[in-house]
Design goal:
- The structure is a single chain.
- The chain has helices at about 10-15, 20-35, 55-60, 65-80, 85-95, 100-150, 155-160, 160-170, 170-205, 205-255, 255-260, 265-315, 320-365, 425-430, 455-460, 475-480, 490-495, 500-505, 525-540, 555-570, 580-585, 605-610, 610-630, and strands spanning about 385-390, 400-410, 415, 440-445, 445-450, 460-465, 475, 515, 540-545, 570-575, 590-595, 595-600.
- With about 625 residues, it is α/β, with parallel strands linked by helices.
- The chain folds into two domains: about 55-365, ABC transporter transmembrane region fold (Up-down Bundle), CATH 1.20.1560.10; about 385-630, P-loop containing nucleotide triphosphate hydrolases (Rossmann fold, 3-Layer(aba) Sandwich), CATH 3.40.50.
- The strands form three sheets. The chain has a six-stranded mixed β-sheet with strand order 6-9-10-3-11-12, sandwiched between helices.
- A hairpin with an 8-residue loop joins strand 1 and strand 2 (about 400-410).
- The longest helix has about 55 residues, at about 265-315.
- The radius of gyration is 35 Å and the shape is elongated.
């Protein structure tokens, strides 16, 4: 597959004039050290194979073995980390008080070894879990992107682009934070609490029981409240950031219209309201954290006070040693320190959990135009299209088409004309199976479109929209979009066929010249011609043109219509025509109004009938005459 580089440049097509001689040796060394990446093995299916709801457990299931290694590293890190208070007790009771220097030195050396092992285990754990997390995220990103490719047009019409972008950006980043810092640290801190509790009961069960009974019930109640409250608050946060990004995306996309109509002030006010709602949601989470964090601190201080009172009394009565009391206090601090960490980690967990729920809903969204499990490939077609008593509405309660029947012959150029909103483009969308009819059927060469695979259908169809979309890349990339393996000769043949040779040859890099996103560096007529070249190279048997000349000036329209002659030769064509000059070139014309076919026939036949088309034609002629009469 060809990328966006410039042909003929060394080093894989670097987009500048050349490499300075003094850097050439270094560049060659870097290229020599580059790993030889193979082409990724990617399979795409229109059928959703895994319909199980997304969850953290299912995300991590394929990495079980790697997670076992991570768990071992967590255990080693946690156990070594908690060796300090025990070594402190040994140093005090068996070294300092009896004045045994060797015991003190041994305890100190053991402490240093424990710290070193903890550091090594922690570093290995961070690196290992980081790799696991990135692997999970790559799989998830590809899965979500593939599902978005699978969804039907109505999903993108109904859902805001900014909300969809949120799923692929901030939601994924929340999961990245969860995998990198959340889950493993959650395990470390949780395991720390278990180990500390076990050690406390082992050292002195009575003192441990007094401390636990005083602290744990209150901590449990506070934690249950925090969980319920933060669940609701973080759901609001996720919705808030989605609304912020959606409003931002819409405002940036329509920036020219905003400027043209002086809507800057109103847009700022609207965006401030959206951002304000997001702020309020974050303030709610801050309020909840402000209660839970100091609350756990208070419980920790009360625990230490109780421990000093009870433990001090036990030391005075020779039921506890000074070393044991010191270790008890250190372990109690080690017990509450994870609680503070868990508060922050739970915030991360809540954000990740809210993102998981949003992504789960997205992945459970079914395409409204599904591929049947038993769908078969569409064999090579001749191009006979038929709509049989088709009724359809984007909203099922409000049909756009009413009992429409059409037959378009092999190799015929068929035009649809009528007022805006009559249903012309809807018919084209049904033929390309962007939607399915509510009633009736659409067939090509007798094959019901619902019974064939979408890939085999779209491979034999071509679509040129009213507003051609060009991707950021080279002219070659855009022309060969449907056939990325096409040779340069085939790309040039398509360019010559639509009359773009002069434009491309005038560019400094020819077909490897860069085209900006959406083709903003080209004129509208040039963008349309490139879209026609793309369709020409795709070699479709049936082509749909949706008002392909309606936004062009007369000179550009003349060039595009000349290109259409080359494109449509030998193919079945359905043309949505805004200008009758385009419709007149068709073999037959259908007049569409209010979702019904009023007339069908050739231009001469329809003019002779003196019906709706004749009325449209007369109006068009009068406008032309009025334009020519102007000085």
């Amino acid at each position: 597959m060809h990328g966006g580089g410039f042909a003929g440049n060394p080093g894989g097509g670097l987009p500048f004039a050349g490499i300075p001689p003094e850097l050439q040796t270094r560049v060659e060394k870097v290229i020599a050290d580059e790993p030889a990446w193979s082409d990724p093995d990617v399979e795409f299916s229109q059928v959703v194979k895994d319909r199980r709801p997304l969850s953290l457990r299912r995300l991590m299931a394929p990495h079980r073995r790697a997670l076992v290694v991570a768990a071992v590293l967590v255990v080693v890190e946690t156990v070594c980390l908690q060796a300090g208070p025990q070594l402190t007790q040994i140093g005090i009771d068996r070294g300092i008080l009896p004045r045994h220097l060797a015991v003190v030195v041994g305890a100190a050396i053991a402490y240093i070894v424990a710290v070193a092992v903890t550091a090594v285990a922690s570093g290995a754990r961070v690196a290992w879990t980081g790799r696991i997390g990135q692997g999970l995220l790559v799989d998830l990103r590809v899965r979500i992107f593939a599902h978005l490719q699978r969804l039907s047009l109505d999903f993108f019409t109904d859902e805001k682009a900014g909300v969809i972008m949120t799923r692929m950006t901030s939601d994924i980043e929340n999961l990245n934070q969860l995998f990198q810092d959340g889950l493993v640290n959650f395990a470390v801190q949780g395991l720390t609490m278990l180990i500390v509790t076990a050690v406390l009961f082992h050292m002195n069960a009575r003192l441990a029981m007094v401390t636990v009974l005083m602290i744990v019930p209150s901590l449990a109640v506070l934690s249950l409240w925090f969980r319920a409250s933060s669940d609701r608050a973080y759901a609001r946060v996720r919705d808030g950031i989605a609304n912020v990004l959606s409003d931002l995306q819409e405002s940036l996309s329509g920036v020219r219209i905003v400027a043209a109509h002086n809507r800057q002030t109103q847009n700022i006010v609207a965006h401030r309201n959206v951002v304000g709602e997001y702020r309020d949601a974050n303030n709610e989470t801050a309020r909840i954290n402000g209660i839970y964090g100091p609350g756990t601190d208070l419980l920790g201080w009360l625990g230490q006070t109780t421990l000093l009172l009870v433990g001090g009394w036990m030391v005075l009565h020779h039921q506890l040693t000074i070393g044991q009391l010191t270790a008890f206090i250190l372990y109690l601090n080690a017990f509450f320190a994870p609680i503070q960490q868990l508060v922050q980690l739970y915030n991360t967990y809540q954000q990740g959990r809210a993102s998981i729920l949003k992504l789960r809903d997205l992945l459970l969204t079914e395409p409204s135009v599904p591929e049947a499990p038993d769908a078969r490939p569409l064999p090579p077609i001749t191009g006979e299209v038929r709509l049989d008593h088709v009724t359809f509405g984007y909203d099922p309660d409000n049909p756009v088409l009413h009992d429409v029947s059409l037959e378009i012959g092999e190799g015929e150029t068929f035009s649809l004309v009528g007022p805006t909103g009559a249903g012309k483009s809807t018919i084209a969308k049904l033929v390309t199976r962007f939607y399915d009819p509510t009633e009736g059927s659409v067939t090509i060469d007798g094959h019901d479109l619902r019974s064939v695979t979408l890939e085999s259908l779209r491979r034999q169809l071509g679509v040129v929209p009213q507003e051609p979309f060009l991707f950021a890349g080279t002219i070659r990339d855009n022309v060969a979009f449907a056939r990325p393996g096409a040779s340069d000769e085939e790309v040039w043949a398509a360019i010559r066929a639509v009359g773009l040779t002069e434009l491309v040859e005038r560019m400094p890099e020819g077909i490897d010249s860069f085209v900006h996103e959406r083709g903003s560096s080209l004129a509208s007529g040039e963008r349309q011609l490139l879209a026609l070249a793309r369709a020409f190279l795709a070699r479709p048997r049936v082509i749909v043109l949706d008002e392909a000349t309606s936004n062009l000036d007369l000179q550009s329209e003349t060039k595009v219509e000349a290109a259409l002659d080359a494109l449509l030769e030998g193919r079945t064509a359905i043309i949505i025509a805004h200008r009758l000059s385009t419709a007149m070139r068709a073999d037959r014309i259908a007049v569409v109004d209010q979702g019904r076919i009023l007339e069908i026939g050739s231009h001469d036949d329809l003019v002779a009938r003196d019906g709706r088309y004749a009325e449209m034609y007369a109006t068009w002629i009068s406008h032309l005459e009025a334009d020519h009469a102007l000085p």
